[in-house]
Specification:
Number of strands: 2
Largest sheet: 2 strands, parallel
Shape: flat
Order of helices and strands: HHHHHEHHHHEH
Number of domains: 2
Distance between the termini: 48 Å
Helix content: over 70%
Strand content: under 5%
């Protein structure tokens, strides 16, 4: 296999890891949505048996969700081991190799946190950390898939961005806002605050609810976070549609981002209206991960293909000064 073919297959495998991780996030969300986190009370065994030898006939009810989650997580872990070793053997860029090892470390810690959530009976701190690290690992796999792509390794002309705030600033802020919102969502889910405010779009029939409990405050914070994310996403997408519609590498993910946001807002509303129906709530979790991943891709591509005008002028001045010397 020549170097070009190896790079292609490495990139494809990295994308496979991204897809598998997304499925894992969905299955993990299903475990929480169905309250199946303790359906299997031991770890790393399953009712005292080796995980992969547990009878399929006994995978019913909550056991199906929790044990299935463990099996999918194991597959993702094995895929990540292969990817990290492949990068170590074939990837010439040292920083990409290190990123691969970091992703492997993240998935190992993630597995340990998953086990601890069971052994310590779903404590909020560990459960939220488990969810947060899942999103972080998902972002790392996306980075690896993008960094091993042909678009990232080939030289490209950078387009000057003279707007304020820069698109780079907007995409970074959007990604950060989405990540924080997912953390708030994890706190809300694991503190059982999802229906602390039982109506939508109002809150107890008002714009601002009475903060009679911590659960109401957590829930309302998540709603405020959704508003902030919406503002950043709309701002970012509007900028791209207005000035960079011809840049397919930016236009396509921007279109996906706004569509995912609309779907997410709808799912959030239906989560309340259906009293947290499992499939709706799980889809809400998965769509949140999709929004995070898409905003991250946009931020990375903007960094790659656009140059902030002030930096461009500074680089030119430095270059001219060096030539004069």
């Amino acid at each position: 296999m020549n170097e070009t073919n190896n790079n292609i297959w490495l990139h494809r495998f990295a994308k496979l890891v991204v897809g598998a991780t997304f499925i894992l996030i969905f299955v993990g969300g299903l475990v929480t949505s169905t309250d199946s986190g303790l359906a299997v009370p031991d770890w790393p065994t399953t009712y005292g048996q080796f995980m992969f030898s547990f009878p399929l006939s006994q995978m019913v009810g909550g056991i199906l969700y929790e044990h299935g989650h463990r099996l999918v997580a194991s597959v993702v872990g094995m895929l990540m081991v292969i990817l990290a070793v492949w990068l170590w053997l074939k990837e010439p860029r040292r920083w990409v190799k290190r990123l691969g090892w970091l992703a492997l470390l993240a998935v190992i810690v993630q597995g340990i946190l998953g086990g601890l959530t069971v052994l310590f009976l779903l404590p909020t701190t560990i459960s939220v950390s488990h969810g947060a690290l899942a999103q972080t690992f998902f972002c790392l796999t996306i980075c690896l898939a993008l960094f091993t792509s042909r678009e990232w390794q080939q030289e490209s002309m950078r387009v000057e961005d003279a707007h304020r705030p820069s698109l780079q600033t907007l995409t970074i802020a959007t990604t950060a806002a989405v990540f924080i919102q997912l953390l708030l969502g994890a706190v809300m889910r694991h503190t059982k605050s999802g229906l602390a405010i039982p109506d939508f779009p109002l809150a107890f029939g008002k714009l601002i609810p009475p903060f009679d409990s911590a659960k109401i405050a957590i829930h309302f914070s998540h709603r405020i976070g959704a508003l902030i994310v919406t503002i950043f996403v709309v701002w970012t997408v509007a900028r791209i549609l207005q000035h960079y519609r011809h840049q397919k590498k930016l236009f396509r993910p921007a279109l996906l981002l706004i569509c995912a946001l609309l779907a997410q807002l709808t799912l959030g509303a239906f989560t309340i209206w259906t009293q947290k129906a499992a499939i709706v709530t799980t889809a809400h979790v998965a769509t949140g991960a999709l929004i995070l991943g898409t905003s991250l891709v946009l931020a990375l591509r903007v960094h790659r293909f656009l140059a902030v005008s002030e930096r461009v002028h500074l680089e030119r001045e430095i270059g001219e000064a060096i030539q004069e010397v």
